[in-house]
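Project channel, design review

CF: Before we commit to the Solanum pinnatisectum constructs, I'd like one complete example in the thread so the newer folks can see what an input/output pair looks like. Taking Microtubule-associated protein MAP65-1a.
RD: sounds good, go ahead.
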Amino acid sequence: MAAVDDQTPPVLDETTCGTLLQKLQQIWDEVGETDDERDKMLLQIDQECLDVYKRKVDHAVKSRAHLLQALADAKVELSRLLLALGEKTYVGIPEKTSGTIKEQLAAIAPTLEKLWKQKDDRIKDFFDVQSQIQKISSEIAGDSEQVESLTVDESDLSVKKLDEFHVQLQELQKEKSDRLHKVLDLVSTVHDLCAVLGMDFFSTVTEVHPSLDDSTGVQSKSISNDTLSNLANTVLVLKEDKKQRLLKLQELATQLIDLWNLMDTPEEERSLFDHVTCNISASVDEVAIPGALALDLIEQAEVEVERLDQLKASKMKEISFKRQAELEDIYARAHVEIDTEAAREKIMGLIDSGNVDPAELLADMDNQIVNAKEEAHSRKEILEKVEKWMAACEEESWLEDYNRDDNRYNASRGAHLNLKRAEKARILVNKIPALVDSLVAKTRAWEQERDTTFTYDGVPLLAMLDEYMMLRHDREEEKRRLRDQKKFHEQMSKDPEVFGSTPSPARPLGPKKVTGPRANGSANGPASRRLSLNSHQNGSRSTSKDGKRDARLSAPVNYVAMTKDDAASHISGTEPIPSTP
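CF: and here is what came back for Microtubule-associated protein MAP65-1a:
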């Protein structure tokens, strides 16, 4: 029976506690266990079964607690994710909290999976935008090579925070773009300046920053504050260098032109330095031709100036006499008398002695020319009035000749033209006194201001004017006397008995003719119109200390003073010649 049982074990599916207990009782019966032993073993079995149940219950309790904790953690994670992502509500969160724990966990798990994926995507977005912000900020700060590791703050992954980072990124990108444009503009300016100055652009710009080389991409160029500052300083230095070189070149160009003009250098030789003289009046910004201010060009101009200076020394006499001729011409046009022969002899002596620096001699002559021009300018207004006075005096002399012509009213050829001229001459002659008074006033003011005598070709002008006015006054007195004599003659002709027997006619007298200042004593002299007085009046003032005219003045050599014997032929054709009583 036992063998059969061993060979054919019971089917486990049919084994229960009852069948096992029955089999145990059978075994006990066969063995012959006592009832106490049996009760003891049954109690032991009950205890063991109770322990098993307890373990199972404990395991079930722990499992339930774990599930509850997992559910609680899931809910906390859900809340945390929603808070981090900035989501107040989210589609897919189960609304019901009833059902078994596993059902609740199964309901919340898909939402958590979606939120975890959304969190990962959001972290990636944050990392990307923050990486760009960090990179641009590092480029602006100038420490792009020392980029720190980036950590995304997962406590706030909201869209609002991400948008804030995007706004910050856009601002930085705009600042980078602006800085990049500034860098490129400055680099372009450096390039242009280096081209004009003939400098190496590559070495100049890479000294500021290696990334500024043309071979480097635009986006890779340094845009830091230091780079911008150094570029700006480089531009300032180059501009100042450009300004100084331009001033130097303009100075050399001026010297070249002066030396060329002194030595009458032909245009073919001058054209060799057109690239130097073309910028003589240019401003700094106007000079943009590459190499226009290169050092070798300036050195070339310096060598040429030095060569011309040496050539000038060998042509010193020719140049000096040319300056002297210019000085004499200025004084001649200003009617200032100078000793030209003595001046030329002095120049010859200085050059031959070798005791004077040619540059100093020319500078002194240049100063003399400047002073002569200033003096000529100060005399200009007075000389213009002198010219008007002389022209009026010539018209006055012509009018007197015209009035003495008995045939002036004949219908001869050109008579109407002479008549018109006579009308204009009378108007002009009537203005002579006022013109002389104005000329005297301006001459005296000029002399008082400069404490020197105003001379006209070596003759004091006021003395000339006083002499002219004295002669004009004598002529007027002569005319008045002749008018009285004419009146007396007419009365005597009407009533000879009153005056006794008829007197024999006397030689008629005419007024003195004041021809005015003539050139060298002739009416048709050269245009210089040199005026002179007697030798004892040369260089003296025309007025005495009390302001009155000097009665000792006599007619100047170039004045034509008429005698009484010759006056009869000078009476105006409109006035009959009286006979002396």
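RD: helpful, thanks. The two ends are 218 Å apart (CA to CA).
CF: Strands lie at 455-456, 459-460.
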